[in-house]
User: Which sequence fits this backbone?
């Protein structure tokens, strides 16, 4: 990965992480201060708490991507240390799906006239879980690459002994 690509990705990660922290802080302030009273049409307090948690899942994924980009730049991504960050991303995606299912559950009573909305929202949650499965497959590919890298290093050491 080139320096320009790494810098561009890091810039995007910083902007997104900063934005999410600001939004989280504003939402926590709205919860704590009680400055935005509910009018009864939607349960805003549970939705705010769920949103704060959902933003947290995105932040975990962003930090893990940052660490993986650092490992790519250093040439150490094909190591067992990378699994921790890939597992963090998978966990964050699964947590985001659970948060989405919570949003669906909170929103469902208001959709009694149109239950299709709840079904669509449930489908989106399943799709989010599908993304976690895709990342899990990519983790398996990383495991194969790490195993091949270890095997190649072992063969190189044997070859060095012969020569």
Assistant:
């Amino acid at each position: 990965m080139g320096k320009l690509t790494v810098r561009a990705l890091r810039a995007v990660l910083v902007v997104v992480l900063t934005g999410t922290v600001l939004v989280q802080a504003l939402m926590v302030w709205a919860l704590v201060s009680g400055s935005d009273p509910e009018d009864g049409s939607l349960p805003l307090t549970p939705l705010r708490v769920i949103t704060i948690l959902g933003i947290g899942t995105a932040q975990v994924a962003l930090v893990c991507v940052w660490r993986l980009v650092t490992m790519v730049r250093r040439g150490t991504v094909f190591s067992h240390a990378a699994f921790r960050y890939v597992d963090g991303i998978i966990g964050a995606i699964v947590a985001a799906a659970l948060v989405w299912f919570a949003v669906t559950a909170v929103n469902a009573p208001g959709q009694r006239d149109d239950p299709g909305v709840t079904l669509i929202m449930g489908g989106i949650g399943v799709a989010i879980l599908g993304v976690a499965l895709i990342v899990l497959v990519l983790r398996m590919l990383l495991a194969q690459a790490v195993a091949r890298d270890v095997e190649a290093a072992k063969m190189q050491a044997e070859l060095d002994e012969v020569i």
In short: The chain has a mean pLDDT of 90. The first helix runs from residue 3 to 33.
